[in-house]
Structures are given as C-alpha cells and as structure tokens.
Design goal:
- The protein is an alpha/beta fold.
- It folds into three domains: 85 residues, Rossmann fold (3-Layer(aba) Sandwich); 85 residues, Cobalt-precorrin-4 Transmethylase, domain 1 (3-Layer(aba) Sandwich), CATH 3.40.1010; 98 residues, Cobalt-precorrin-4 Transmethylase, domain 1 (3-Layer(aba) Sandwich).
- It has ten helices and twelve strands.
- The strands form four sheets. A four-stranded parallel β-sheet has the order 3-2-4-5, sandwiched between helices.
- Strand 6, helix 5 and strand 7 form a beta-alpha-beta unit.
- Helix 4 runs parallel beside helix 5 and helix 8 packs parallel to helix 9.
- The longest helix has 17 residues.
- The radius of gyration is 21 Å and the shape is flat.
Length: 312
Amino acid sequence: MLCAPRGFCAGVVRAIDAVEKSLEIYGAPVYVRHEIVHNKYVVESLKTKGAIFVEELGDVPETSAPVIFSAHGVPKSVPEEARGRNFFTIDATCPLVTKVHREAEIHWRRGRTLAFIGHAGHPEVVGTMGQLPEGAVILVENVEDVARLISPESGKLAWASQTTLSVDDTREIVAALVARFPDIVGPHKDDICYATTNRQDAVKAVAPQVEAMIVVGAPNSSNSLRLREVAELAGCRVSLLLQRASDLDFALLNGVTRLGITAGASAPEVLVDEIIDALRARFDVTIETVTNAVENVHFPAPRELRVRGQPS
C-alpha cells in the first residue's frame, strides 16, 4: 500500500532546482552550505554535477561562484559573513521556514520571548533561533521542558515550531504551554508545513491496514523520522526507516502480507521504485495507492535564478 502524498515537497523541489539551475546558469562549481536537503542520494547526485557541499562558509575559498544556503534556513550571522567575504549567495530556504523566521522577528519586535518547539541541533532550529539575539528564544523539545519554563521578565511569551515535527507531539506541547501561560501568543497559521502534515496523515490512514511500514528517508531527516514514529504509534509491529533498497533486511518481513510504503519530503521517488523492485524480486507484489490529499503547491525559484545572466 503506497501512501500518497509521499516524497518531495515544494520546498525540497525548489531547493534542488536552485542548485541545478545555478550549475546550468553559472557553471560548476557551485558551493552549498550544508546538505541542500537531508538525503544522501540527492546530495551525491548533485556532487556529480559540480556542487561542492560544505558545513560552514569558512570551508569556501575566495570565489565568484554561487554559494547556496540549504532549504533548512540559516542564522542571520551566515549571510552577514557571506557579505563580508563578497560572496554571491542564493538563498534556497523553504518559504515556509522563512515564514517562521518572520514570525519570530515580529514577536521579538513586540517585546515577546519566543518559546520555539523543535529538536536541538537540527539545522532548521539553529537557523530560526539565529534570527534573534541570544536569549530571545527558548528551545522547547518536550512537555517536560514546558514545566521547567520560566516566564520572561516582560511577561510576554509567544510560541512557534519547527516545520517538520510530529503533529500530535507538537499539539501536546502547545496544550501544555497554553495551560501554563494562558496569554501566550501563537502563529496565525500552524508552523508545521502542509507536506509534513499530509505525509503523517497518509501514514495514519495506511498503518492500521498493514503489518509493516517502510519509510524511505535519511536518518538525519526530521520529517522522515517522524513518519516512522507515526507508523509505530499507529500500531505497525515493524516500522522501518530505510535510505536504499540495500538497507532492507528481508527477515523483518517474514509473515508480512500487507506492507505500507511512504517517503519523507526529501526522498526522491526513484528510491521508492528501487525498494519496490527489490520486493518484486522476492515476492508476488500487488500495489494499491492510498491517497489522503492532493498537493499542487509550487514555490518560485530564488530571484537570482529567474533571469539568466551574471549577478550585478
């Protein structure tokens, strides 16, 4: 049973396209700070085309080549450093992450401390917290953190969240925040993105009907990890996160007659096909697609890539 929607979201498509169009317009190499999206297959594919991936700008030599920021977003200090080195930068941050950045700045300008729900160390969390001065954001990872949260001196508190979290876990944390701080201000629209929500809802629809679930995605992909957790919580006795077909342990599928397959928002469909082909080599496979939502979201390319030619 194939979950739909699955795989690439509009933000991931935009980010990958940004690297490919940069290579087409400006030629190789182009530099990319951090993995453009969390998927090894995608990153390795872009490397073969001339993309060079670095973790920090300090790893980029003096160059006139484009320097691209990943879909996860970056702290304000990163573009400031890039300007100081006269880099030509292209920001491939997902527009839905940028929306959270703007919300955070609005709260700060209005004198509110931000309780940010997310996972410590994740690039999106680092980027969002880095939009504001130190101490203006308090990271909240779970309900226990809410219990330890100290009300800010201003008495004004707001909350926002990472875009790729578990919908159910986040709802529980928000409920705890509201219970402790009834005047807390939330976003006008949930920060968890449409693609994360849709993929989790699709897994919830399929998981009760199958004996095992395969989530195609990377171990450092937050949305993929959440999909595996959602499947497990929905009752799948076997819930696997796989990067490639070669990672599949067929012994774990002994006795399984109904299998669910989905893919995280940064996993290409070719990897889903690869796993299905590996299953077909061993089993008699019939495919049923279970559609939970139809997505038609599209984000325009970064402005530097909309007109052919060198930057001014």
